[in-house]
TrEMBL record:
Gene3D superfamilies found in the cross-reference section: Jelly Rolls (2.60.120.10)
Domain Cupin type-2: 30-99
Region (Disordered): 104-130
Range of residues in the leader sequence: none
Chain intervals with Basic and acidic residues compositional bias: 104-121
InterPro entries: Cupin_2, Flavonoid_dioxygenase-like, RmlC-like_jellyroll, RmlC_Cupin_sf
Protein name, UniProt field: Cupin
Amino acid sequence: MEHFTIATVAEKSPDFRRVLWTGQQTQLVIMTIPPGGEIGEEVHEGIDQILTFVSGAGEARVGGETKAVAQGDLVAVPAGTKHNFVNTGPNPLVLYTVYGPPEHADGAVHRTKEEADRAEAAGEDEPPTS
């Protein structure tokens, strides 16, 4: 069994993205977006995503709509939908997200968005295939 006090684990992580757990059908990832930062506009074909916000303030930009997000908010992003999440506050925007199926390499840790982008471009952040 994996057990996390998820808000505490997420708050303690300084990393842009850290994969906490990967199963056959889903994946749990924590993220910390610095002030003025963003996840980056993207589309996950064939992958649903649910994001829960632990602290900070930001904007959810999903499928052409924009809404403010803060602690306790949850946003569901259906597969194939263009989305981005932007930190609009003075503090880190901290969240955890569940992908179904997995989107990232098991155990991946990317300290910055730039590091995450490089890993993806180099093919080093591929989800497990089995």
